[in-house]
Amino acid sequence: MEDIKYILFGLLVAPLLPLMAIQGKRIRASVPKLPPAKGASGYIGTGKGQVLRLITIGESTIAGIGVETHEEGFSGTLARALADQLGKPVVWKVYARSGYTAKRVTEKLIPQIAETDIDLIVIGLGGNDAFHLNPPWRWRRSIRDLIAALRERFPETPIVFTNMPPIKSFPAFTPLIKRVVGSHVELLGRSLDHVTEPMPNVFYYARVITLEDWRGVSAPPADYFSDGVHPSALTYQVWARDVAGYVGRLGVL
């Protein structure tokens, strides 16, 4: 179904691609190029239980673009939330690179993983595949290849894919790009759900992120983004705690 929707959507969008290309260049010129967060590993918690070993893998959000350190970004906050939930220490490490698609992550980042024993793998992808308008069948193949590469190393470890990025809410994007790329990332999310659903111990947090869900944080919309595209520290922390809650509800740890 996603493949048919992609083809039909592509026919509608094709005449708009030149305009989107012009708008995309303007956006890239206006958005500051932020460095990845520092401190790609850490240890947190004082509980007496066995240490939970966590790795996070992905694109710019997992790389912590928009914050100074990973401790205030997604991975550090996720580790802290899991430590609080489980009452045990968490040792964590980040494997991520801004601009990487799922295919690129499999080719370049998975071979870099030094750990041999891991209790939880959390993956954040989808933005770059959506920006490239990669078709859902290519995305599914890339995700299967990624999972297969991880399963060779970690056959029993729970793998959790985070929510897809809320591209329709990105302030830096034009209405046209929000609509086209935002709809496409949701299509990729549904494809990801279909890939992971039958796989044992592989999960996708399919809840669609909207700023309205986080309005209780009492912050204006601009405070959710560091540069109009990437999350702010506030967003990373709210998002990571939400994902930690999802992991807790899964009951896999």
Automatic annotation (TrEMBL):
Checking SUPFAM superfamilies in the record gives: SGNH hydrolase
- Using the record's annotation, list all stretches that form the SGNH hydrolase-type esterase domain: 57-238
Q: Name one GO molecular function term.
A: phosphatidylcholine lysophospholipase activity
**InterPro entries hit by this protein:** Ester_Hydrolysis_Enzymes, SGNH_hydro, SGNH_hydro_sf
Q: What is this protein called?
A: GDSL family lipase
**Native organism taxonomy:** Bacteria, Pseudomonadati, Bacteroidota, Saprospiria, Saprospirales
**One Pfam family here:** Lipase_GDSL_2
Query: Which organism was this protein described from?
Result: Phaeodactylibacter xiamenensis
